[in-house]
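re: that complex we talked abt at group meeting.

here r the seqs, copy pasted straight from the sheet so there may be weird spacing, ignore it
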Amino acid sequence: MSPGIEQLFFGIAAVVATVSSMLVVTRRNPIYSAMFLIVMFAAVSVIFMLLDATFLGFMQLLVYAGAIMVLYLFVIMLINPREGDLPEESGATEKSFAAGVSLLIFSMLSFAISHSNEVERLSALGSIPLLPEVSDSHGTIRAFGLELFHNHLLVFELTSILILVGIIGAVHLASRRKNNVPHNLTNAAEGVVSQDV
Amino acid sequence: MFSLPTLLYLSAFLFSVGIYGVLARRNILVVLMSLELMLNAVNIALVSFGRVHALTAFSGEHGGQIFTLMVLAVAAAEASIGLSLLLVIWRRWRSIDLRQLCQLNG
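got the structure back, here u go
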């Protein structure tokens, strides 16, 4: 692909990711947040593919936009929050505090990026499509898998244990037990409590 | 435009948006989604650094991408555990409001 096209696609993907990430955190209804999060994952997957991480881009689509977001949508569907169930959002004070903290962190990160010798040295070489020439097989499932199972086998196995623990934990937590009766701690609506999930 | 600093700025921006979501929202679902957003921001930085260092990195040509795959697995485990905790909270209190869970009272 010619560098111009790559620039164009990167620009589109970056703008889409930026806008949809801001929409994720500002929408009141969680369904809209989930939809914009899917858009954001797709944009990030485009960026991965432009960075020659083809396999990882597809994994991003499959695992994030496919599996994880379907899990979120199932949970939203299961609890089916009505307009009254949605929590009252934070006031202006809390929102401006949160905005201040995130702005502070963004400015610290930007300062670090703009003053880093390493980043300057690397970016002096030119834009990313001009950076180190790798073989055509870079980022393909074959090259990726060979390196994963040769050099990083232990990490891979440990990840499988992590996933196993995740499965067991999720099944244990979400399973319904007889003595797990809902009780009102605060102002849960009286009539809704008997209704089943 | 498509250069290392741009990618890092994009990653930093997405990370800060995620922090805003975690701090400002009261809906547990949206807070969990903001966590996914932050993990994704870190993934962008990892993949772009891995691409830039592809031929010189100690961890091999695909080091950054393999790290990202591990983050993907952690994100999947985190999402499943977090959402089942959310289900338990919903069954007990019929609420997805974080501010109602600040009393450490089962």
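couple things i noticed - Chain A touches chain B through 103 residues (CB under 8 Å). The helical segments of chain A are 3-26, 30-50, 54-79, 92-114, 117-123, 141-151, 153-174.
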